[in-house]
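Subject — a protein and its fold
Encoding — discrete vocabulary of local shapes:
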Amino acid sequence: MMAIDRGRNALARRIDAIVGGDAGAIAAAMVTGKRDFLSEPAKDVIREAGIFHIITISGVQMTLVAAIFFVGFRRLLALSGSLALRYPIKKWAAGLAMAGAIFYDIATGSRVGTERALFMTLIMLAAVLMDRQALTMRNLALAALIVILIEPEALMGASFQLSFAAVAALVAVYETRMAANDRDREERLRPSARPVLGERSRLFWEAVARHLRQGPGGVLFATFCATSATASFMAYNFHELSPYVLIGNPLTLTVIEIFAVPGALVGALLYPLGLDPWVWRYVGLGIDGIMWAARMAGELPGATIHLPAFAPWAIVFLALALLSAVLWRTAIFRAMAIPLAAIGLCGAAAGPSFDIAVAASGDAVALRVPDGRLAVIGLRPSLFSAEQWLRADADGRAAAQAVQRTGCDRLGCVGRLVDGRAVALVPRQVCFRGRLRPRRYYRHAAIRPCRLRRAARHRSREAQADRRAHFGFYKEWRRDARCARRG
């Protein structure tokens, strides 16, 4: 595994050096799964366009790799007439595609999202081996069950929720489309008397509608369904939505299908021979196009909608609404999704608000300051925690902009809430040794520290008087304690 990881690092550096810029970093991430070369501005651009999954090795890449192996091996075996007529080359191709998918998972780092996509791909190919239909809700449920048995905590993760919600919507669209095609086929085979006048025009428009339904129209409709299925989980976990994702996702699929995956396979084969530079430039050409479109979409008004935190029970009803829409087969049962979604949306709108939040490590506190926004105080606050607090408050500022350092010294930090109360954060353990000050001296503090030793010189006269009173109280307490020990 260490040798494979070193090879991935070398390939990622080579791709980044050949392509260069953000396109090279994205190409390296798409091919090897390494995101080390990607800059923060590039991450913001693809995040606002709703195509952040372009730099992750997920279900789209895994499915395309398995499909390329499956179709390629099947066509290669079909070149022999004796093999094609006497042996089940379809099953052979499925077995070879399973081996190729496993190798691709190992070669790209075997991340959690990639492993889930691998489980689903292996189950679909195993269905081909057993002469069963591959894309069914039963196979999706089996893949979800395997993931939950191996990693029960994955059920609460955003990756699991987004992956299986999108695939469930796509499988539902596929099953509905197959049923509609069967009905159309039966309708065409059923003899009926049709007028001759205008028959050619009718057949032409039916062919156009069929092409749009199975081509660009089908891609847009599938993208709309997958986006709608994942919207509630995106809003719940990341507190933002990208309205222009219907533009970004088809572009992403185009780049992945035409440039990234074929280029990754061909480039990986030519890399040991040193003949791969033109392949990576070809991949970078497609990425340049999608980055241009992503920047244009990010500059449009309302490119990113920031949402506050949901009520904890809201996502449960939204998930039940999604399951009702994709699992049931009749319109009456699918209509059950409407009241469930309405309850979930009410919970999303009635999310809890907060005026103070403390990091799990205790090194940072988020306060709602008098201007109504959050400010983060701490000696060295975690920007990740600050970003999560801002997202939960529907605040689109960068985490560094919310950090407030004016009220900090070497002992701790002080801030004020929106109602004027003071909050003190003293993370140093040494400050908690000795006698605490009387409670009356902390009647305005939400987090009561210990004695403040050396207060800052800019404190008010009242604070200095409190400090002198505290030290007088402390000396008196020590004298009484010594007398008690001597007695």
